[in-house]
Specification:
487 residues, mainly alpha
Length: 487
Amino acid sequence: MSELDVLDTPEAGRRVVRGGALRVAGFVVGIACSVIAAALVTRHLGTVDYGRYQTVVALVTIIQAVTDLGMTTLGLREYVQRRGEERTTFMRVLLGLRLALTALGIVAATVAAVVLGYDAEMIAGAALMGLGVMISILAWTLAIPLSAELRMGLVTALDLGRQLLTAVAIVVVVLVGGGLIPLLALQIPVSVLLLATTLSLVRGVMPLRPMFHARRWVTLLRPTVTFSLATAVGMLYIYAALVLTELVASDHETGLFAASFRVFVIVGSVPGVLVTTAFPVLSRAARDDRERLSYAAQRLFEGCAVLGGAALVFCVVGAKPIIDIVAGSQFAGSVPVLRIQGAVLALTFVIAVWGFTLLALHRHREMIAVNLVALTVSAVTVLTLASAHGATGAAVGTLLGESVLACGYLIALARCGRALVPRPGRVARALPALGLALACLALPVPAIASTVLALAVYATGALLCRAVPDELTRPLARVLAVRGRGA
């Protein structure tokens, strides 16, 4: 049996669970690296300069989303669903198109920085960070076969290596007293190393020669432009909140929102990692077996919803120690902002499942419409509330936008069939545990102790109430049983 054929067997589900667990484990280590890096950068730059730094990062990310057009997800789906020479040609065309679009994105990011009135340091930083993003995108495009074949150990190693190298580079820049430009440019050497490693892993499996052919690019984009826009707009409106806040709020308030936003981005990456791991299975099931798709989407929803509850507890109860660790006492005003964004994160975990299910079903037009509505709501409310209430207002604006997106995705799933509408029964069992965990915020104990206790209460309650899907608890039970016999 070929490696890719595993997607058509029950082994695919087991690999998704193992791969998801492996990626989360790697991601936890990566989060530790990101937290250390963020703590160094925030203290090194201070409130105002950190706001400038994160604003450039957000701007480049937005431009990347617009020019990237969701091509990694598209490539993953098409790699799974195509065969032979058709697949090889598609991937070569994709490589060429991504390089061309990302180069265009570097120019667009630089021009946008000029138009928005950024200073010379921010403009140069945007151009250099854009170059690093271009190299990174090339590496992740070449790595598509690893994800499609569920080789999650290698995917995890690549991602973890990137985060470790980034953290090391940040430490070096801070130690030598580097400013905004070196911090934004450090992605270039990190991405070069990532690209070199990826090339060695996919040689002979992934075509390495890009095809620069305008007509083929148009042929590729024409039937998939709605897919591309659907994935791009979803990232756009989240990062737009920080750029818009910088336009209407003070530098200090922008810095406060940037610190909370950094935590949001780190934790909010978890559902994307999990669902991307399962996306090859969702895509194959969407093509061949709707019953299997419904089952997989429901289990993913249950697992991500429980994890979303943990993220909510973490950010609400642990807001103060998190900000103290990540940013320091000068960012104390970020604490209430992070608590609001904890609610945004809870929604983000389940939205990731619904969004990727809709992508697997090719429901691109519905996704674009919903994301545009969410973008409009978020942009209007962030501009209005951030100008009056600073960072807290911006956080409320993102919460409203994410709420609109969640409702829209549910409606879109219902239009695909009742079997795909998530059933909340199992997830609802975790609500008492969630309430008890959040109540730990009122305990007269140190903030770190109340955070640890709250997470323990939530995890224990979710397990006892059987809110966690059996596919996750059974492997854990087998491990514990084996260890128990060994003891």
